[in-house]
Write a structure and sequence with these properties.
By secondary structure, this protein is α/β, with parallel strands linked by helices. The protein has a single domain, classed as 2,3-Dihydroxybiphenyl 1,2-Dioxygenase, domain 1. 16% of the residues lie in helices and 40% in strands. The protein has a 4-stranded mixed sheet, covered by helices on one side. Strands 5-8-7-6 form a 4-stranded mixed sheet, covered by helices on one side. Strand 2 and strand 3 form a beta hairpin. The longest helix has 10 residues. The radius of gyration is 15 Å and the shape is globular. It starts with 7 loop residues before the first strand and ends with a strand. InterPro entries: Glyas_Bleomycin-R_OHBP_Dase (IPR029068), Glyas_Fos-R_dOase_dom (IPR004360), GlyoxalaseI/FosfomycinResist (IPR050383), VOC_core (IPR037523).
């Protein structure tokens, strides 16, 4: 067996609507499925959102808001990305800074979502 791709991740969040608004500002789309469950779709992946205290079983042993550290590849160069974040009222925690990605060097900007999850927004950089 070999792993082919990541289909989805689950984020446990305090407020689903605040989380939806944040990730929509980053360009993701809200998806409703399975009897009213909510996810944020992007590319061929999604983030399923579970409300803290009402997680869908089975779930992580200790689910909780603010415990994730995520990296997303985006289609804006760093200067345009920082401008977009400013227009959306999203504060930058760090960056742009050079990082090492799974397949290429990255230039990354770090922000936090409403639960305090660390969200790295990256573009591939020349080596």
């Amino acid at each position: 067996m070999r792993v082919l791709a990541l289909d989805h991740l689950v984020l446990t969040v305090a407020d689903i609507e605040a989380t939806v608004a944040f990730y929509q500002a980053l360009g993701m789309q809200r998806v409703t499925f399975g009897g009213g469950r909510v996810a944020m779709a992007f590319g061929r992946q999604k983030l399923n959102l579970h409300r803290a205290g009402a997680e869908i079983a089975p779930h992580a042993r200790r689910p909780g808001p603010g415990s994730a550290d995520l990296c997303f590849l985006v289609d804006l160069p760093p200067e345009a990305l920082t401008a977009h974040l400013g227009q959306q009222g999203i504060g930058i925690e760090l960056g742009p800074v050079r990082r090492t990605g799974a397949a290429a060097p990255l230039v990354s900007v770090y922000v936090r979502d409403p639960d305090g999850n660390l969200v790295e927004l990256s573009t591939e950089a020349a080596a």
